[in-house]
Amino acid sequence: MKYIKLKFSFITSIKLSILFISFFLLSVTSALAADISIAPSNTAVSPNTQFTVSINISAVSNLFGAAFDLIFDPAILQFVSAQKGTFLEQDGVSTNLLTAVSPPGDLIIGYSRLASNGVATGISGSGVLMTLTFNALSAGASNLTFQNNSLCDASNPSG
User: Fold this and answer.
1) Which is it for strands 11-12 and 35-39: parallel, antiparallel or unpaired?
2) Which of 10, 61, 104, 143 lies at a C-alpha separation of 20 to 30 Å from 132?
3) Whole-number Å distance between alpha carbons of 75 and 78
4) pTM confidence score
5) pLDDT digits (tens, 9 = 90+) for 119-158
């Protein structure tokens, strides 16, 4: 039986590791203290199998939204879907999650809270930001690598 070995990158604004890729934030906001990670950090799946990873956030303050690209090998993986996590909606505020794969192997994600009565509000704490489902296409290894990362806090929702 052939397996696909996936290596996921742990993302943090505080530590660098040889095995993990650092998450550098583009906006200077109080959300900079946040740690973002992918769980599980690695997995092996058979070809033609779907699997899900969670994008988790911890120690964030006043988070209004997140935007990033997730790079993967399109010969090994196919993006299937994204589901909202509970973190940004925990106080009942509506959210908007947008995804696009363009070009192949570059998953572009934007996820934010909607302003209520014209006022942007943020969430602090830790939780599941979103879950992503992929289909393993063939045997091999693929990293999931973050690029063009930005967390926005409610005092500056445009980043």
Assistant:
1) antiparallel
2) 61
3) 8
4) 0.79
5) 899 999 999 999 999 999 999 889 999 899 899 988 875 5
